[in-house]
Amino acid sequence: MKKTSLFATDLDGTLLRNDGTFSARDISALESLREKGCAVVLATGRSPVSLQKCLGKMELPMNWYVLSSGAGILDSAGNVTMSRILSSDDTAVIHRAFAEQGITDTSIQGTFPDAHILYWMDGKHCLDFKKRLACFRAFSNKITDPGIPSTEVMGFVQPDQADYALSALQETIGDKFSIIRVTSPIDHETVWIEVFAKGVSKASACEMIRKELDIPLEFTAAVGNDWNDIQMLRWAKQSYISSNAPEPLLCEFENVPSNQNNAVATAIERWVL
After folding, report:
1. Mean pLDDT by 10 residues, the chain (273 residues)
2. Domains in the chain and their CATH numbers?
3. Is the backbone peptide bond immediately before 113 cis, with ω within 30 degrees of 0?
4. Distance CA 68, CA 223 (A)
5. Sheet containing 254-256: order of strands
6. pTM across the whole model
């Protein structure tokens, strides 16, 4: 069936509820869209392995999966259709840029689709980092040299330091790489500053899918809840933000209920009408 429109949804804090379950109403609304010929896209910061760990045996009604914040795309059968990686030199440059800003709490993610593999170095790590490391202990590797190919380099900073750190990194390496802010899904406070290959974002990945399917931009919509969704929300013709989002985002996009109260279904119902 030819796809006539595209709807993209974030996962954590948008489609996924706080207890790790999904609303039957949200899933039904997504299924209905897909049956009508809409290309349904899940756009998340998770890697393929992290997504599978989250879903277990559940299958979501998706046509495409934009993963690792847009560094990779999988089709509905799980085939990699696009991946963007950083060279060894790029990874080292980014790691050094973090260090120059006093950010030594960093992790390096393996090359997509193996972005769940976590490389880390000795340092004074925050609790959020330690919890994340524990979640991926089976896939973690301690290293002494950051010069390795990767999907991204991630720095962990406290909320009151985030704006300055982001500004400084944009000044030094922002013309060469894509810098994305994320609120930690672990403690919901620590800010993750993720640096990818230039041009990587949920928006650019969704645009790639849109062009491949020849869908007019005017027939696109997206829903999200956090800073790493902002480019995707600005890209889509119609955008929605769940009520559990940071205040600045609530002021920019049309509000829908929280992830606890059918944010995705509400966005779909408004868009269709």
Report:
1. 88 97 98 96 97 94 98 96 98 97 94 97 90 92 96 96 96 97 95 98 98 97 97 98 97 98 98 85
2. 5-83+201-272 (3.40.50.1000), 88-197 (3.30.1240.10)
3. yes
4. 17
5. 80-83, 72-75, 64-67, 38-43, 5-9, 220-224, 238-242, 254-256
6. 0.95
